[in-house]
Design brief:
2 domains, 3 strands
Length: 200
Amino acid sequence: MSTQKERKLMDEVRDVMRLHHYSIHTERTYCDWIKRYVLFHQMKSRDDLSDGERKIELFLTDLAVNKNVSPSTQNQALNALVFLYKQVLKDPLEKQINAIRTYKKLNVPVIMTREETSKVISLIEGTPQLVVKLIYGSGLRISEAIRLRVQDIDQKMKTITVRSGKGNKDRVTTFPASVIPFLQNHLTKVKARWMILGFK
């Protein structure tokens, strides 16, 4: 496809995207995929854009087999090309697109055994050890453990109220009884420190 004709096609793509109020990020991404698609098939004119389903299928398959892209990247390319044909070229793409799909690799999470966790905790001292015990025993995120306040812990009910957690939501989680002596010791030390400084 000549530079002039390609520029005209891309101008049309941009005009349609701006008419539908697509973000500038999406515009740039779609235009990039369309250019890669044109180069992949070595298109010289608009006539080369015909038989879209088959050509899109070949392009997406190449992304999966030879480029080893992620599923989200392949879907992004598909969305850009469907937009090109349906919204810009007014081609409904009635046939199926049966490209080889990229599948997300599932990694089995590495979970430490109780013995391994206990060994790691034994190597930590003081306040950091207390924080790690809270994270492990209560299922807290690091940021939640750092923001934790004394009034959020109910030692009698053995619960912790997490304020503004994931999704900015509050939740209640368990408070392990084994941590109580360590917490009380920590609070005693903090109180003593403040008393020395003249605070009550």
